[in-house]
UniProtKB/TrEMBL annotation:
Any single GO BP term: phenylacetate catabolic process
Organismal lineage: Eukaryota, Fungi, Dikarya, Ascomycota, Pezizomycotina
Any matching Pfam family: Thiolase_N
Domain of life: Eukaryota
Catalytic activity line of the entry: an acyl-CoA + acetyl-CoA = a 3-oxoacyl-CoA + CoA
Record protein name field: 3-ketoacyl-CoA thiolase, peroxisomal
Segments forming domain Thiolase N-terminal: 27-275
Length: 388
């Protein structure tokens, strides 16, 4: 037993030292799919509640993986807004054809909940708790959901400013970032134009086709098939510059045009060790190397990548400039995206090359799950060191 533990430890250390080296114990992604991202309230998923979205993405995962569903041991659902997500996730998994031996849970780390679900499943596999698991990120913002509807208790509100700042709405935090770090309205609009134009070009070129699974659902009582992201076409700086501020009580730099679209959507990834994938004949589309989390002042919550990315890269002795071909950062607001890009000195040509959440939308928990698919798709034009 001690020898096995020592061998596992040595393997883990080796992975940290050489993340690009293939190892039988590598955690790999064998399937990465997502639904289209559809507009809030008016879009194709406006009548599709969370449990239906989760059911549909899990059905597609089971069918497209060609994997015996009895081999899946855990399914982790990342979701922010729905207090019933844990029940929905479990019921949807059973309805999708997974046996009751497949456990299910829900995780909420706000907008990175989908990524947290991936991290949870990967950690379970790495520690030997399970062999195969599925991570899902899903959000239905168009249908009724849970929102903070009161102040925190007096003891929290009186404790310190950071605790009180957790009450600030996201729009206010965007204006805080713009003001604190001097991100102009012009810089935000210019960034948003690029995000929208890249997404439009990617869609027209079919670059999203391999990751999007068509979803049959209902809207207005009629059956429809949804197979494309609902993005804006023909975005120009002139149009964006004429939009009014969305949060005038907090500032005048964030607008509907340079903020992420509110959307509904879901994404899923299937994970296992490299050795298990080879044993089962599963295609290896990517290698999961690691995840880092970092806390920041709540009033500027969107700057987290500035701290989490260097933390992760330093762990694996990687350089953002020399070793990373594609970087995906969630574009909750252009203020935060511009700050992160500039602070990290990311080459803009390799940051969100197919557009980001400003164009494609931000279904909260579904966004970070979709990032897995975006990066997977981006890799088609770059090196494949980690995926083969």
């Amino acid at each position: 037993m001690a020898t096995e533990q020592f061998t596992s430890l040595v393997s883990s250390v080796t992975q940290v030292a050489s993340p690009t080296v293939k190892n039988p114990d590598d955690i790999v992604i064998t399937l990465a799919i997502r639904t289209p991202m559809c507009r809030y309230k008016t879009g194709s998923f406006s009548d599709t509640p969370l449990d239906a979205l989760v059911l549909k993405i899990l059905e597609q995962t089971r069918q497209r993986s060609h994997l015996d569903p009895a081999l899946v041991e855990d399914i982790c659902l990342g979701n922010v807004r729905d207090g019933q997500a844990a029940q929905f996730g479990r019921a949807a998994a059973l309805a999708a054809g997974f046996p009751n031996t497949a456990a299910a849970c829900r995780v909420n780390r706000f907008c990175s909940s989908g990524l947290a679900a991936t991290q949870n499943i990967a950690n379970e596999i790495a520690t030997g708790s399970i062999d195969i698991g599925i991570a899902v990120g899903a959000e239905s913002l168009s249908t009724p959901n849970t929102r903070l509807d009161r102040e925190f208790v007096d003891e929290i509100m009186a404790a310190n400013q950071d605790a009180r700042d957790c009450m600030q709405p996201m729009g206010q935090t965007s204006e805080n970032v713009a003001r604190d770090f001097g991100i102009s309205r012009q810089a935000q609009d210019e960034y948003a134009v690029v995000s929208n134009n890249r997404a439009e070009a990617a869609q027209k070129s079919g670059w999203f086709d391999d990751e999007i699974v068509p979803i049959t659902t209902h809207k207005g009582g009629k059956e429809i098939v949804v197979d494309k992201d609902e993005i804006r076409h023909g975005t120009t700086y002139e149009r964006l510059s004429k939009l009014r501020p969305s949060f005038p009580e907090y500032g005048d730099r964030s607008t509907a045009g340079n903020s992420s679209q509110i959307t509904d959507g879901a994404a899923a990834v299937l994970l296992m060790k490299r050795s298990k994938a080879l044993e089962l004949g599963q295609p290896i589309v990517a290698k999961y190397v690691g995840t880092a989390v970092a806390g920041v002042p709540p009033r500027i919550m969107g700057v987290g990548p500035v701290y989490a990315i260097p933390k992760l890269l330093s762990r694996y002795n990687l350089s953002l400039d020399k070793d990373i071909d594609v970087a995906e950062i969630n574009e909750a607001f252009a203020s935060m995206a511009v700050y992160c890009k500039d602070k990290l000195e990311i080459d803009w040509s390799k940051l969100n090359p197919r557009g980001g959440a400003i164009a494609l939308g931000h279904p909260e928990a579904g966004s970070e799950g979709a990032v897995d698919q975006y990066v997977h798709g981006d890799w088609d034009g770059y090196g494949r060191t980690l995926r083969e």
